[in-house]
Amino acid sequence: MKLRTITPVHIGDGEEIIPWEYQKDTGKVGIFPVEHIVKELTNSYFGQRLRNILLSLRNDVRDFGFSRHLGDFVRDNRLNLNPLYSLECKTSLRDREFKSIKSHIKSVEGVYIPGSEVKGALRTIFIFGVFLDSIKRDDDKYLRGIIQSIKYALTLESKDKDPWKTAMERIENLFFRYTGLEDAKYDLFKAVVVSDSKPISPEEVLYIDSIGLVGSNRGFSEPHELIKPGSEFDINIQIDEEHKKALKKVSQNPYIDKLTLEFLQESASTFYGFLLEEDAGFFQRHGINGAINDLSKINALRKKGSFLLRIGKHQGFLSITVMLLLKKVNPKLYEKVYREVVPMARNELNKTRKITGEGSVLGWCAVEF
Question: How far apart, in whole angstroms, are the C-alpha atoms of residue 32 and residue 34?
């Protein structure tokens, strides 16, 4: 099966490409990781010439730090260096603007989608499907469990504990493990196997654009490596039926039989339908036409039966938690939680507020069998 990106996607590797590691050109940015610079220099220059270049490089970094680009050094020393890869750039990395670029996760072979990222999205969808089913059947077990978990976490005062993380751990146990079987080996999603995607060359699927906040007066804007819309990655999602049977013997989780691709796709359609409605209202109030068009296209795919997923960073608060349903069934608690978790919250409770410089929302994909 394939995972096709509908809007730009960023899955960070925790690294940044500092100004000293990229070179601007007309419409393109050449990426020169430090180890690649050293390799290029030692392959192209020798003896005293190489020594002089390395000494000059050291002095340049000492004297200028981040307030200089690699391109300046290459020009001043008349060097001929090839980048590791070059990407189209849709944001203004202006001269004298020394911004680091958030790096997308890669292996030695290229850009890939981690299976854990996809599996995390499927977990959220499964929780939503089970939660919604229980509400339809007037069974408030999960609602009570979620509320109790959140209220308990909000009472924590220890600096050693993250209240929100604590709440999410308790909620996940509620859905994926049975009381008395909290060990991770009994987690229901152990039966879900998701491979990492096959890697693809960065130049095939990546570009650079800034990501900013809608309605922010802080001028927040950060360049990111992003996967282009329309990129396709080979990936495999399977439900291990033997593992399901083994879990069923030891667990009394009533939803173990619902762990199917069909249930996940059905839950995804409903979950993302609610989410798209929320986000469309937000962007319409702010007049962000690019985002509105994106959401309209995504919703049309959902209505046609596409198996949607949202992955990566900058999805927004409602995409990655149980908060979307909590917002609908207990708005007051939702507001309290939001203001606790997001201290910078304004009067309008935020949804997805980050968009690319071109106005696109982030993270939307479709699983294609």
Answer: 6
In contact, 223 and 210? CB cutoff 8 Å:
yes
Range of weakest confidence among 8-22, 86-100, 101-115: 86-100
What integer pLDDT is reported at residue 160 of this predicted model?
55
Confidence of residue 345 (pLDDT cuts 50, 70, 90): very low
Q: What are the respective helix, strand and coil percentages of the chain, to the nearest 5?
A: 45, 20, 35
Q: What is the pLDDT of residue 366?
A: 97
**What interhelical angle do 331-341 and 163-176 show, nearest 10?**
130
Cβ–Cβ under 8 Å, residues 192 and 239: yes
User: Which two three-digit tokens encode residue 55?
Assistant: 């000494």
Q: How far apart are CA 8 and CA 361, in angstroms?
A: 7
Coil, helix or strand for 290? helix
Element (H, E) at 250: helix 241-250
Closest CA to 115 of 203, 235, 224, 217: 235
Determine the residue type at 258. K
Burial label, 146 (beta-carbon count in 10 A; 0-12, 13-18, 19+):
buried
Does residue 305 contact residue 262 with C-beta atoms inside 8 Å? no
Report the range out of 57-61, 235-239, 322-326 with the highest average pLDDT: 235-239
Assign 172 to helix, strand or coil. helix
Q: How far is residue 102's CA from residue 273's CA, in Å, rounded to a whole number?
A: 30
Q: How far apart are CA 153 and CA 162, in angstroms?
A: 8
Taking each helix axis from N to C terminus, what angle separates 115-136 and 261-286, rounded to the nearest 10 degrees? 90
Provide the pLDDT for residue 139. 79
Q: How far is CA 26 from CA 34, 107, 199, in A?
A: 22, 28, 27
Distance from chain centroid for Cα 177: 26
Contact 258, 241 (CB under 8 A): no
pLDDT over threshold 70, residue 178: no
